[in-house]
Design goal:
heterodimer; A: 142 residues; alpha+beta; 5 helices; 40% helix; globular; B: Aspartate Aminotransferase, domain 1; Aspartate Aminotransferase, domain 2; 2 domains; 7-stranded mixed sheet; 4-stranded antiparallel sheet; 13 helices; 17 strands
Chain lengths: 142, 409
């Protein structure tokens, strides 16, 4: 297990230069996520218009993996229809749990595949995705 | 006499390589490694006289019982107890603290009573009191710490009132490493009529402890942080307190007689030991205490002080690294720290590739970390087998961590 597999350049880039950081005001949905084991905390806020994720921000503190994953996620989902985002979340979680080969469409996110070899860190990578999933659940009627 | 240079040969695990590098185990505050002498004692029990205690009328059961009770006597001697009957075996400190919170707290706490703990407590000395306070309508108060992780004793006069029934505090902080002035706190608590319970998880393994000199009323400890196996620990309490307390868990062994609708209790300490105990663990603990007593606890403490001083010196050389807690004179063998722009998990991950084991996270002291405004810290902690060369490996690995995370800047 080499460090380069875990800390790929794109991950370190997102960690040190996070995209879409902050809190949306006003937001349609704001959702907090936490990893009680390591104390990582994350807040996702997003605006959805006409079934499209128009804007999204994340804020929180955590390790390079959780912060980079959140940053990459916001880049990937911004401007996409909600149904597509839901599919992306499922594909990302499947990739992180080793259930499916990474689809081509995951792009930069594939850099996070290396995290799979470090089981305790998988939760760091999925924190923002699980939080976004719960946020989108709030959108659905009933 | 110091710690013999050959000590590492007693610890088989220290010869391991991890990720191609020699194992550098700097997480003894989480759990200690085990010497061959302890492993042998446990194996002998299982191979030669494995039997349940206090029951069988046959030779190996009698030997098991004798060794189990000999371990209790060893603990009593090690902690300066008046006698073995003041030692209750539990699984760990957490269970010892829960035992007192329930068995003592349910009987004595009334609505409006106050429980005084500290802002640096481990969750195991916070949550049991929260639960019993909620149940009894009691109120929790906390002794604050200063910017060097020391208890602010000036606050004691305000916090200790005639409503304070018990003070629960950690002897040596598992995060700051601070050695708290237990004797002084106890003196002032007793003057207010409050009892004192001490979390000794990080003190009993590392320095001489004399519960009667400390003056406290309860003292919890755990075996696995002091060379013994996991799953064995205990509570020391003054005998009259154990006598008047209700049982904690019900079951076999803790009874004197049982009818279908009621029971009477066994003598102390067995009144608090329901069910089959961890006999092998207790025997391992007895062997661990023999081992520590042969080294001498003064020598253990002196060795750790030396290593801790060296570690603090080396860590201070690393740019952007911040050490939590007080100076070496007021600290045990624990050094927690954080680094600018690098999360403790990332530190720990990079260190692992160099074979270095440190703890990363909140170390079960979330309120402490919250007060400091940091989510987590990294912690290096030491024991009898830690050598300066390992501190050098740690320092080099931390510089490497810094380099890796400055790449993208």
């Amino acid at each position: 297990m080499s460090l380069d597999e875990l800390y790929r350049e794109v991950i370190l880039d997102h960690y040190t230069h996070p995209r879409n950081r902050g809190v949306l005001e006003p937001a349609d949905i704001t959702r907090d996520g936490a990893n009680p084991l390591c104390g990582d905390e994350l807040r996702i806020s997003l605006r959805v218009r006409g079934g499209i994720v128009e804007d999204i921000r994340f804020q929180g503190k955590g390790c390079s993996i959780s912060q980079a994953s959140a940053s990459m996620m916001t880049e990937q989902v911004k401007g996409k229809p909600v149904e597509e985002v839901v599919r992306l979340i499922a594909a990302f979680k499947a990739m992180m749990h080793g259930e499916a080969p990474a689809a081509d469409s995951l792009g930069d996110l594939e850099a996070l595949q290396g995290v799979r070899k470090f089981p305790v860190r998988v939760k760091c990578a999925t924190l923002s995705w699980v939080t976004l999933e719960l946020a989108l659940d709030e959108l659905r009627p009933g | 006499m110091g710690i013999p240079a050959t000590i590492r040969e007693d610890f088989p695990i220290l010869g391991q390589r991890v990720n191609g590098k020699p194992l550098v185990y700097l997480d003894s505050a989480a759990t200690s490694q085990k010497p061959r002498q302890v492993l042998d004692a446990v194996r002998r029990y299982y191979e030669e006289y494995n039997a349940n205690v206090h029951r069988g009328v046959y030779s190996i059961a009698e030997r098991a019982t004798a060794e189990y009770e000999a371990a209790r006597a060893a603990v009593a001697r090690f902690l300066g107890a008046a006698g073995p009957d003041e030692i209750v075996f539990t699984r760990n400190v957490t269970e010892a603290l829960n035992l007192v919170a329930y068995a003592w707290g349910r009987r004595h706490l009334r609505p409006g009573d106050e429980i005084l703990t500290t802002e640096m407590e481990h969750h195991s000395d916070l949550v049991p009191w929260q639960l019993v306070a909620q149940e009894r309508g009691a109120r929790l108060r906390h002794i604050p710490f200063d910017d060097q992780g020391r208890l602010i004793l000036d606050e004691l006069d305000r916090l200790l009132t005639e409503r304070t029934r018990i003070v629960a505090l950690v002897h040596v902080s598992n995060t700051f490493g601070t050695v708290n002035p237990v004797a002084e706190v106890t003196r002032r608590a007793h003057a207010c009529g409050a009892l004192v319970i001490v979390d000794g998880a990080q003190s009993a393994p590392h320095r001489p402890v004399d519960v009667r000199a400390l003056g406290c009323d309860f003292f919890g400890f755990t075996g696995h942080k002091m060379l013994a196996p996991m799953g064995i620990g205990g509570l020391w309490a003054r005998r009259p307190l154990l006598e008047e307390m209700d049982p904690f868990l019900g079951g076999g062994e803790m009874i004197s007689d049982v009818w279908l609708d009621r029971a009477t209790w066994n003598e102390v300490p067995w009144k608090f030991e329901a069910g089959t105990p961890n006999v092998g663990g207790a025997i391992g603990l007895g062997a661990a205490i023999d081992y520590l007593e042969r080294l001498g606890m003064d020598a253990v403490a002196a060795h750790e002080r030396e290593i801790t001083a060296y570690a603090m010196e080396r860590l201070r050389e690393i740019p952007g690294l911040h050490i939590l807690g007080p100076g070496v004179d007021e600290r045990g063998g624990v050094v927690s720290f954080w680094m600018d722009d690098i999360h403790p998990h990332d530190i720990s991950q990079v260190l692992d590739t160099e074979g270095v084991c440190v703890r990363a996270g909140h170390h079960c002291t979330k309120p402490l970390h919250r007060k400091l405004g940091i989510g987590a810290s990294a912690r290096a902690s030491f024991y009898v087998y830690t050598i300066p060369e390992e501190i050098d490996v740690l320092a080099r690995a931390l510089l490497k961590t810094r380099e890796l995370f400055s790449v993208a800047r």
